[in-house]
Specification:
Chain lengths: 64, 309
């Protein structure tokens, strides 16, 4: 065990900083996912009923 | 230069939990619950993702105002026993950090609520934050013994915001839920002020107990509880009420009235003799009171949703 080892040793502060950074990172990732989900929902909720085709029920095809 | 040797050994570096504590998580719980009830009791369905996002941003807005409140009130928090361990007086977070966090999260929550739900809900959230910080914390809290009555309004807005998320408009039922929290807050806090004896005196916050004395505070608790009981039971006959709500309201208000009567019917000598047992019980009951009333509103809304009521 050389004396140089202590320089590389991780200070307790590094651990806490790492924990904080991981926490912030996870929150940002969660925020991105939430905004994506919101965007998806908002886009799929747009009412296309003004279009001539009725999108409610599936059309009965001639092949049935 | 990120070497640890640059950091003085005595300097505390805040953890994520310290910033979370700035946001008053226990108040946030109440905000989340009442806003959720407001949203689900409204006669309009909300997409689950939009509902989740809206409640989250309302909670973040509430947390932001908590951080701003802690920034502004750091001086009195340091004096009061109940609040001395909050992150700023405990030296864990710099006041400036709380200010920046509060401002940033306020802006984020209002903007995101506008995008997720609607502009009116976002405007109400912005107004709530403004009301809590500027009108209550900065202006009236240290000025008038009616501070709690006015401050109660800030805590009463969440169900209204939840309702607006679902419907996009105001309505009588939303304001009834507002009134329930608004009328509940004064007896809840005055009971606390009675048994946290010297805290508010030391901090020179003009609580009713300090400015007008304890006997008058006891009378005020009884008066507000009577008005609250009329309002809470009356709500049972409106669109958000029903048999379940009415049963819960009658039982809880009877208990609450008995508690308030017992508080009114004794003096400081009696209270000190049993270490404010009656006041402490009343305070604990007040927590269940609000939770169960809103829980009953939620049950009634669910039953209506399933076509059972």
């Amino acid at each position: 065990m050389g004396a140089g080892m202590s320089i590389r040793a991780e200070h307790e502060l590094h651990g806490r900083r790492k924990g904080r950074n991981i926490g912030v990172g996870l929150m940002l990732a969660g925020f991105v996912v939430l905004v994506m989900a919101l965007t998806f929902v908002k886009i799929t909720q747009i009412d296309f009923s003004q279009a001539p085709v009725n999108t409610g029920a599936p059309q009965q095809g001639a092949s049935d | 230069m990120t070497d640890v040797t640059n950091t003085p050994a005595t300097e505390y570096e805040a953890e994520l939990g310290d910033y979370f504590a700035l946001m008053k998580p226990r108040v946030m719980q109440l905000v989340v619950f009442t806003a959720l009830v407001g949203m689900l009791a409204a006669p309009a369905s909300v997409h689950p993702v939009i509902g989740f996002a809206s409640i989250l941003f309302i909670a973040i807005g509430a947390g932001a105002s908590g951080a701003l409140n802690m920034w502004w009130d750091a001086d009195i928090d340091a004096v009061m026993r109940r609040t001395a361990k909050r992150p700023i007086p405990a030296g864990k977070v710099e006041p400036r950090e709380a200010l920046y966090l509060g401002v940033a999260l306020s802006g984020l929550s209002v903007m995101m609520l506008a995008l997720a739900a609607n502009l009116l809900a976002a405007a109400m959230l912005a107004f709530t934050i403004f009301f809590y910080i500027v009108i209550y914390s900065m202006w009236l809290k240290r000025l008038t013994p009616q501070n709690i009555v006015i401050g109660g309004a800030a805590g009463a807005f969440p169900p209204v915001i939840g309702w607006i998320v679902a419907t996009g408009t105001f309505s009588v039922e939303a304001w009834l839920m507002f009134a329930l929290i608004f009328m509940w807050t004064p007896p809840h806090f005055w009971a606390l002020a009675l048994f946290m004896r010297s805290d508010y005196d030391d901090a020179e916050v003009p609580m009713l107990t300090v400015t007008h004395g304890r006997p008058l505070t006891r009378r005020h608790i009884l008066a507000y509880t009577v008005l609250l009981a009329v309002l809470a039971i009356g709500t049972g006959f409106t669109a958000v009420g029903g048999y379940i709500y009415l049963t819960v309201a009658v039982v809880l208000n009877a208990l609450f009235l008995v508690g308030a009567y017992r508080i009114w019917n004794r003096d400081e000598v009696q209270a000190e003799a049993d270490s404010y047992l009656v006041e402490r019980k009343f305070f604990r009951l007040s927590l269940y009171y609000l939770f169960l009333h809103f829980g009953a509103i939620l049950i009634e809304a669910s039953l209506r949703g399933w076509g059972l009521a």
